[in-house]
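RECORD TYPE: inverse folding
INPUT: structure tokens
STRUCTURE:
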């Protein structure tokens, strides 16, 4: 539920404040923590995921401050049906796997570390932190509509991928693609009844197709790669709309929920 503007302002302050705390601590200690864990575990990918899990503590604290309850799975959207989400994501991303299989070589040098870091950890933790928390708390529990709730998180999400760029053109391309990706994943999260597993699996499988066939070294890709990525995105949107129509339900995000939601 969402209440008045004072309630909205309180949640905004807590959400942005604890997310900023996570970001600062992550920047200061993540690499050192991962290296320390790696001394004992000896597997970079597992160490990476464990360090990410520990870095989530400020996020979990933020959820508790907002709701004063420990039901993190509910408030982060992790209580949805993962099997339905996986099926949807497999069907929607199939064009990327097929298209890239036909055009690119299979990456025979792919490692378990790459899969755990670039596919599993990126898909899961980025969706929990950016969509489940930063976007989800603002959209689900305040009067903010979709655009203001997603905007700053999408800017942030686009910004963290700029390290992949090597000039202005690639920077703009990577920022634009990841910004729009954040908007898409946020939209999927809400339209699938706050089921965060939908964007988690969609994000994970899109990353896997990119890595499995050595599509490109960064998120931008060439025209061929983006044609099949666009087909998958269109399929995600159409399948979501079709699923809603089968249940005779209207879209959650419409002109009434784009900017400010009513107190109803």
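DESIGNED SEQUENCE:
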């Amino acid at each position: 539920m969402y209440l008045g503007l004072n309630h909205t302002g309180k949640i905004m302050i807590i959400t942005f404040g604890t997310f900023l705390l996570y970001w600062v601590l992550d920047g200061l200690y993540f690499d050192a923590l991962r290296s320390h864990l790696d001394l004992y575990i000896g597997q970079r990918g597992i160490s990476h995921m464990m360090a990410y899990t520990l870095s989530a503590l400020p996020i979990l604290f933020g959820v508790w401050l907002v709701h004063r309850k420990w039901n993190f799975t509910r408030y982060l959207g992790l209580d949805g049906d993962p099997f339905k989400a996986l099926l949807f994501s497999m069907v929607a991303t199939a064009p990327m796997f097929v298209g890239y299989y036909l055009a690119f070589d299979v990456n025979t040098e792919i490692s378990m570390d790459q899969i755990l870091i670039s596919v599993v950890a990126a898909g899961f933790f980025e969706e929990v932190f950016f969509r489940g928390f930063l976007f989800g708390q603002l959209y689900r529990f305040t009067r903010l509509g979709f655009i203001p709730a997603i905007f700053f998180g999408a800017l942030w999400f686009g910004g963290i991928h700029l390290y992949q760029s090597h000039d202005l053109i690639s920077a703009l391309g990577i920022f634009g693609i990841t910004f729009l990706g954040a908007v898409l994943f946020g939209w999927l999260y809400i339209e699938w009844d706050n089921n965060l597993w939908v964007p988690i699996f969609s994000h994970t499988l899109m990353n896997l197709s990119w890595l499995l066939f050595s599509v490109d070294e960064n998120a931008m890709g060439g025209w061929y790669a983006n044609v099949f990525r666009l087909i998958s995105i269109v399929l995600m949107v159409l399948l979501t709309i079709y699923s809603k129509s089968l249940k005779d339900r209207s879209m959650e995000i419409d002109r009434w929920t784009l900017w400010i939601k009513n107190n109803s």
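NOTES: Residues 74-247 form one domain.
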